[in-house]
Amino acid sequence: MVVAVDGGGALSAGLIREGYEVIATADSRVLAEIAGDTLLGDESEGLLRAVLAADAVILEVRRDSLTAEVVALCDRAATRIVPLCAHDADERVAAVFGLERSLAADASARLVADALATQPQSPAEPTDAHDTPRVIAVWGAAGAPGRSTVAIELAAELARGGKHVALVDADAHAPSIALALGIADEGPGFAAACRQAELGGLDGKELTRISIPLGSTGVDVLTGLNRPSRWPELSEKRVGKALEVCRSWADFTVVDVSSSLERDEEIVSDLDGPRRNAATLAALRSADVVVAVAGADPVGISRFLRAHADLRATIGATTVRVIANKIRPGALGIDARGQVRRTLERFGGIRDVWFLPLDAKAADAALLASRTIAEQSPKSSLVLGVRRFVGDSLAPPPVTVAASRRVTRRYTKTEA
Asked: What is the pLDDT of residue 179?
């Protein structure tokens, strides 16, 4: 591991006594300057290599030490960040990047070692297939919380590392993935997959034929309905069977669904006829994880809380990951994240929330170019937020805690 703490020699020595390997020690600002390419040289390159090879970085959090560049560097290397915070303001900085489980700045080596020990000990251990979600449904309350944008970016992020991802547009009210990505929606798409599934002729080869590859990203898109009036084609039975085939065809299947969970047709008629929201209900029940998107503004949070109870009644014990999208101080004032978190916990019992910032410039550029935001603006704060969410909750990278001893090499700002 790397200890990026000002005056961290004592902490490094304590971690070595606890049985951990400390391969480098540096001031916290030095790591930020190296990640931002503002400090280069032989010594800084050695520290950079140490960060890329480390399993964890113990970082003293301040506004000038924990930056987007540092988080991106550690994300690329699958290196865990253990934040040490001295003040409430430092904890808020850590929370911005999704690092909410912080330790006190004067935490002992034993406390840091206990925090490190909460992670898996070996990446070589086999992972239960049921622990990794294969079908991920993206749902959100009425309005425009950004369901389709989140679904597209999740698919692009999950495809990193050579994974095969299926992006399915199962929105029977307002399908939009094909329009956002510049794909012709006159092809067979998901409706054809549903018809073939009902007839028993859907398999991986057929899905490969009717899907549309999204460039070289590893994402295959099953476009939605080109006319909302065709919604009877997405029946509950068809959608369920099609998603089961997708489960074995792709490593991950991301399904964009509509917001409505109403079952009014069942109230006014007991006939076994088509249901307008059958596709949404079937996709949610087939999903291993439901990503619930809430608009991070007073109206969006209110709508989300009212619909959250209906979502829970529909999916039962299925895991739900909540994302507050388009977070910005203008709509909520000071400490927007804290207000959203407290409101969701108080009125919905939701404690784990991930935040995606509003990056209108990057989103507009991607829409203009008919590309994903990850392709058009890879350094966008929204892309980094999605990457953090995926790494934390959907596909966490394995982390190894090494137990050995080595002489500590200390890098100071002056030496660098």
From this structure: 92
